[in-house]
Design goal:
The protein is an alpha/beta fold and about 300 residues long. It is built from ten helices and twelve strands. It is globular, with a radius of gyration of 19 Å. Bound molecules: NADP nicotinamide-adenine-dinucleotide phosphate. The site of NADP nicotinamide-adenine-dinucleotide phosphate has 24 residues, from helix 1 and strand 4.
């Protein structure tokens, strides 16, 4: 079962699970928000029990791709903050408890935002056991969601932190940069935040591989290979459009204040992913090329 199936990642998960090369024993039950509000405790229990009772082969795995992702709105609007807490903190606990009742495993998606800076300002790819230090409503709600999943489904959960997602649908950084490339001569983009852009189709492949694997329960990191800055990412989008990347000018975070603080260092190590016997996600630059080849409308903004 995929919850949040209407989101960028959710849609790719459903597409992956419905692909022709998927074993015939696998079947996917897609639950977009319209059919399952993950904050509705009764609805969650009913949906998970109905799914588990349906005849199917193989182990049942629930992949939670639902989230409240408007990170800046959650800082400035009380209702948004409450929604972020309900969807990102409480709902994962409800889903995990329902999975425990029916014996299903759970894959839960989290974020680099939960991680804090390394001691002494060190800069190396971040591991799952590096210090957490969420700043902001969204980040705190996501960390609480992780904790509730671990507590409610010990031994049969996978918490997967990813970063800098963009998908074929919805608004995302690639579309925004493509639009701005058409609207402006030059563009200032922050160059002091480092991370790994991740195409949702690649993350979906990885999550499905994890769900099918016999990897032990735990918390792992999975993001596009390599690292860049938002400025580097924007320049790559310009390059894919055939526009001059130098039109993107580096600036620092201080000159582009946002309500929710962003981590300066979000580069995620793939060591935990490899240790589980899983193939690392493709390099972020190759993934962007593949994504725009497959979805040329991404570059229309
Ligand atoms: N985007 C990023 O850069 C990023 C980075 C790191 C980690 N992540 C994590 O990756 C996961 C997938 O993110 P995404 O980029 O695919 O986000 P997304 O496109 O915003 O998708 C989230 C989905 O969750 C749905 N949802 C919200 N409230 C719900 C509710 N009460 N019940 C059921 N569904 C609900 C949303 O529906 P509506 O659209 O109708 O609200 C949307 O379809 C999330 O866990 C996110 O925290 C994202």
């Amino acid at each position: 079962m995929v919850t949040g199936a209407g989101g960028a990642l959710g849609q790719d998960l459903v597409a992956r699970l419905a692909a022709p090369d998927v074993p015939p024993t696998d079947s996917v039950r897609a639950q977009p928000r319209a059919t399952l509000d993950v904050t509705d405790a009764d609805a969650v229990r009913a949906a998970v029990h109905a799914w588990a009772a349906a005849p199917g082969e193989g182990p049942a795995v629930l992949i939670n791709a639902s989230a409240y992702t408007a990170v800046d709105r959650a800082e400035t609007d009380e209702d948004a903050a409450a929604a972020a807490w309900a969807v990102n903190a409480e709902a994962p606990g409800l889903l995990a408890a329902a999975c425990a009742e029916v014996g299903a495993a759970m894959v839960h998606v989290s974020t680099d935002y939960v991680l804090g800076p390394l001691p002494g300002g060190e800069r190396r790819p971040l591991e799952p056991d590096d210090p957490v230090a969420p700043t902001g409503v969204y980040a705190r709600s996501k960390l609480a969601g992780e904790e509730r999943v671990r507590a409610a489904r010990p031994g049969a959960h996978h918490v997967v932190r990813s970063a800098w997602l963009y998908g074929a649908t919805g608004q995302n950084f690639v579309r925004t940069m493509a639009r701005l490339a058409r609207e402006r001569d030059t563009l200032d983009v922050v160059d002091d935040q480092h991370g790994s852009p991740t195409w949702t189709a690649d993350l979906a492949d990885g999550l499905v591989a994890l769900a099918r694997s016999s990897a032990p329960a735990g918390t792992r990191h999975a993001a596009g290979g390599g690292a860049t800055t938002w400025c580097g990412f924007a320049r790559a989008v310009f390059a894919e459009m055939g526009a001059d990347p130098e039109r993107v000018r580096p600036c620092d975070t201080a000159s582009f204040p946002r309500p929710a603080p962003r981590p300066a260092w979000s580069v995620l190590s793939d060591a935990s992913w490899r240790a589980a016997g899983l193939a690392p996600l493709p390099a972020w630059r190759d993934a962007l090329r593949t994504a725009v080849a497959r979805h040329p409308d991404l570059l229309l903004g």
